[in-house]
Design brief:
- The protein is mainly beta.
- The chain folds into two domains: 61 residues, no CATH class; 91 residues, no CATH class.
- It is built from four helices and seven strands; from the N terminus they run E-E-E-H-E-E-E-E-H-H-H.
- Strands 4, 5, 6 and 7 form a four-stranded antiparallel β-sheet that branches. It has a three-stranded antiparallel β-sheet with strand order 1-2-3.
- The chain is elongated, with a radius of gyration of 26 Å.
């Protein structure tokens, strides 16, 4: 087997590739990128085996087990909701469509990290329910479709598209 390095211009950029040529197997040529065999961040792990190719992380730590190294993982943790109480709706979003509109009822729930990352609890915005309406007022649509979740239905239905979540946290 013979390896040949070459530079190729692809879509206006330059790509470094190597060709592994095995003449004993039907003379086939199989391309692979040198980038996979390179250690771009210098941490001792070649790119194809590195769980964080763009950041130096010689320990390859991945506390939440999601396959992305802690050094470049924007969300370290496996979060679950522990509280079984009904969430309180704090935002109703209106989406206009051609002949109808829909209202999305959203709430914030507190979630907790169950991984070894020990990340602090955080709030996540979740979709509770959605209703689609045609030829009735937003308020009537909202009140008739309001889900069982907690919250002041009338106040929320008068505040469609207003984000009241931060206000309700205080």
């Amino acid at each position: 087997m013979q390896s040949i390095s070459c530079w190729a211009v692809i879509a206006g950029g330059v790509l470094c590739t190597s060709l592994a040529v095995n003449t004993s197997v039907y003379g086939q040529v199989s391309p692979r990128t040198i980038e996979e065999e390179d250690d771009g961040d210098g941490d001792g792990f070649i790119n194809k085996d590195d769980n964080c190719r763009d950041a130096w992380n010689p320990d390859q730590r991945d506390c939440d087990g999601d396959g992305t190294g802690d050094a470049c993982d924007g969300l370290n943790g496996n979060y679950i909701q522990r509280d079984t109480a009904l969430p309180i709706i704090c935002h109703i979003d209106k989406d206009d469509h051609l002949a109808y509109y829909s209202l999305e009822y959203r709430a914030e729930i507190k979630v907790f990290d169950t991984s070894s990352c020990n990340s602090p609890p955080r709030l996540e915005r979740v979709l509770i329910d959605e209703v689609t309406c045609f030829r009735i007022s937003e308020y009537d649509c909202c009140t008739s479709g309001f889900p069982r979740a907690g919250g002041d239905r009338d106040a929320m239905c008068r505040s469609i598209n207003a984000d009241l979540c931060a206000q309700m946290r205080q």
